[in-house]
Design a protein that fits this description.
The complex is a heterodimer of chains A (252) and B (297). By secondary structure, chain A is of the alpha/beta class. Chain A is built from 8 helices and 11 strands. Helix content of chain A is 31%, strand content 29%. Chain B has a single domain, classed as ABC transporter involved in vitamin B12 uptake, BtuC, CATH 1.10.3470. The chains are: A alpha/beta (252), B mainly alpha (297).
């Protein structure tokens, strides 16, 4: 995919015609990463669902680039583990999803699924029940499933929630590799500013119905963040990485 | 042994009908258990039974008589199908949206339909004998023509659920990802509920409400405890249901017992479910627990 993967003009997103966030303008070139940040309930996931075509825009225009094909990684706890799927079954759901009948593309589906599991480093989990996996392993299986759909855009909803430090760092490194080596466009929903500071090239910041969008360096500055969050914010560099800290109770 | 073979030969049509109903209920029931709509699985047979009850009641009125054009109101099968279809449409809910409100609504429908199925039949000429048939089923009444009718309705349901099982599961397991990939989850929901309504309507008239509910839930639940992987779970559910239905029939047909077939098959299915839980418990204690591996956690 070349050019812009995504373009929004005066875009309003919401539910049943009621806007949650209004007037978003952004252009995301293919191969870049957009961090969508804000507190719980701010409208981050609503924006992501609109981009994925699961919700219609309330107003404005949203244009997806040529060849836009999204792979979606939902929050791990949004999937009911009641069915004893193996990890391979979960990934195979998205591989050759265009083939309707079970006996068509069976071998190709399995090959694509195993490749995707290997790609995210959990090939040996293929035969294990999905519900018995740890949070980090499930997240990787869901990422493998998204990759098995051969996406040009990878959308992840709170992918680091519930992960320990090592699993989080490993997942983020994998996303960086997919973007840098394979030119995949990444849409990353998170409530953690520090995560997008490192991983994203652009940011859409949503808070209390207000929003700001732009390049990371332009948005993650105290003078932009403090009015949005209503408290002092520090942006420091630690070991070459940008760290954003809110300081509640202090005067800006 | 000779007695057993003689029983199988004598009742082969009824046994084939009860196994067909059980297998179809089990295959559709895997989705019922997977979608966590077991209460709907309990309510729908009652709704279908209320439809049958209504057909009994209407049979007593002259306006449904021959030549009136409303004779179809006397058809138990058709009324069961219409009632189950309406019930499935009313209780349809997209998977993933669970809430107390929906469960209470389903329970209210269950109570209403359960009460109606008794009250409506009460007014018919045969009264409580029909109530007994609705609850316990009329498996022995499955002759060759009825078996052909069952196959005509349940065959396409089995075929459809077998061909579309991947997409039906995907649409219920993760509807958002499925929609993202262009799968029409609404259409698949509709297909599933249509299959559920047809299965329930046909099975209630053949095997009764209790047995329909049992075979809708227990084989799928037992198979999910025993097997891993989607193909194995569906095949396992079908196999366990066939075993439960056939064993229940033969047990009930034993002349020393002479029990009603539906409740006996239900009891056998409960035993199979209990055994599956026991096997899973033993397997888990022998080390089949959560993934222990050197892969990234």
């Amino acid at each position: 995919m070349t050019g812009n993967a995504l373009e929004a003009r005066a875009l309003s997103v919401g539910w049943r015609g009621r806007p949650v966030v209004e007037g978003i303008d952004l252009a995301l070139p293919a191969g870049e990463a957009l961090g969508i940040v804000g507190p719980n309930g701010s409208g981050k996931s609503t924006f992501l669902r609109t981009v994925l075509g699961l919700l219609p825009p309330v107003a404005g225009t949203l244009r997806r680039g040529d060849g836009f094909r999204a792979g979606y990684v939902p929050q791990t706890d949004s999937i009911d583990p009641v069915f004893p799927f193996r990890a391979l079954d979960v990934v195979a759901m998205a591989a050759r999803a265009d083939a309707i009948l079970p006996f068509t593309a069976g071998r190709e589906r399995e090959r694509i699924s195993r490749e995707a599991l290997d790609r995210v480093g959990v090939g040996r989990l293929a035969g294990l029940p999905y519900r018995d996996l740890s949070g980090g392993q499930r997240q990787r299986v869901l990422l493998a499933r998204a990759l098995a759909s051969r996406p040009t855009v990878l959308a992840l909803d709170e992918p680091t929630t519930g992960l320990d430090l090592e699993a989080e760092a490993s997942l983020l490194a994998l996303l960086r590799r997919l973007r840098e080596e394979e030119g995949m466009t990444i849409l990353l929903v998170t409530h953690a500013l520090t995560t997008v500071a490192d991983e994203a090239t652009q940011v859409l910041l949503i808070h209390g119905g207000r929003h700001r969008e732009g390049a990371v360096g332009e948005i993650l500055r105290p003078e932009v963040l403090e009015p949005l969050y209503g408290m002092p914010v520090r942006v420091d560099e630690v070991a070459g990485r940008r760290v954003v800290t809110g300081l509640p109770g202090r005067t800006a | 042994m000779t007695d057993l073979l003689e029983t199988i030969r004598f009742f082969r049509t009824a046994i084939a009908g009860s196994v067909l109903v059980a297998v179809c209920c089990a295959v559709v029931g895997v989705h019922v258990v997977g979608r966590r709509i077991v209460l709907t699985g309990l309510a729908l047979p009652q709704v279908a039974a209320a439809g049958i009850g209504l057909s009994f009641l209407l049979s007593g009125f002259a306006f449904t008589g021959e030549g009136s054009g409303l004779g179809w109101l006397r058809s138990h099968d058709l009324m069961a199908l219409l009632a189950a279809g309406a019930g499935a449409a009313a209780l349809t809910e997209r998977p993933g949206r669970r809430g107390a409100g929906r469960e209470v609504r389903t329970a209210a429908v269950l109570c209403l339909a359960g009460g109606l199925s008794f009250l409506l039949v009460q007014g018919s000429a045969l009264g409580m004998e029909e109530v007994r048939n609705i609850v316990a089923g009329d498996v022995l009444g499955i002759h060759e023509e009825r078996l052909a009718q069952l196959a005509l309705f349940l065959g396409p349901v089995l075929l459809l659920t077998a061909l579309l099982h991947r997409r039906l599961l995907f649409a219920s397991f993760d509807p958002e990802m499925a929609s993202t990939l262009g799968i029409r989850t609404g259409l698949h929901d509709l297909l599933f509920h249509a299959c559920l309504a047809v299965t329930v309507a046909r099975s209630v008239h053949a095997t009764g409400t209790l047995s329909s509910f049992a075979f809708l839930v227990l084989p799928g639940a037992a198979s999910m405890r025993l097997f891993r992987g989607q193909g194995a779970v569906f095949a396992g559910a079908a196999g366990l249901a066939a075993l439960g239905a056939a064993a229940g029939f033969l047990l009930a047909a034993d002349e020393r017992l002479d029990w009603p077939v539906g409740p006996t098959a239900t009891a056998v299915m409960v035993l199979i479910f209990g055994a599956a839980c026991g096997v899973r418990w033993v397997l888990d204690r022998r080390g089949g627990g959560p993934a222990a591996s050197s892969a990234p956690r």
